[in-house]
Amino acid sequence: MPSSQAALPSFPKVGDFGTLVTQTSLAGVTIIETWALNADFNGASQLVFSTTTRDGTTVIANETDTFILDSAGVPTKVVISVIPNEISIAPLTTSGAMVTLSGNKN
After folding, report:
1. Is the separation of the CB atoms in 4 and 21 below 8 Å?
2. Which is nearest to 32 in space by CA: 12, 55, 14, 9?
3. How far apart are CA 93 and CA 16, in angstroms?
4. CA neighbor of 55 nearest in space, from 91, 18, 35, 85
5. What is the tens place of the pLDDT at every residue in 15-66?
6. How far is it, in rounded angstroms, from Cα 53 to Cα 22?
7. How far apart are CA 102 and CA 43, in angstroms?
8. Where are the chain's structural domains?
9. Which pLDDT does position 92 carry in this prediction?
10. Burial of 38 (0-12, 13-18, 19+ CB in 10 A)
């Protein structure tokens, strides 16, 4: 259950940002989801969603989803980056491996 939750504004402007959701489990794992609308080149913008997962004060994972929007606000590209910190979930152990996926609309 989220301890706080907010919606994106109906008409965000470049430079706007905020927190969408903060939630903490009974085990002490906290997930914070944020957003930002950043300037890009040639009138385009970047709508960025970031998720940080913490176990206590230790960051255990970050995910950033970036949507490139043309000057009309139409998505043209998406980039997804996941950076787990050292995580051990049998049989998988990762240590700071980064995965980035990106693609164009066409």
Report:
1. yes
2. 55
3. 37
4. 85
5. 999 999 999 888 888 999 999 999 999 899 999 999 998 888 888 888 899 9
6. 10
7. 20
8. 14-104
9. 47
10. middle
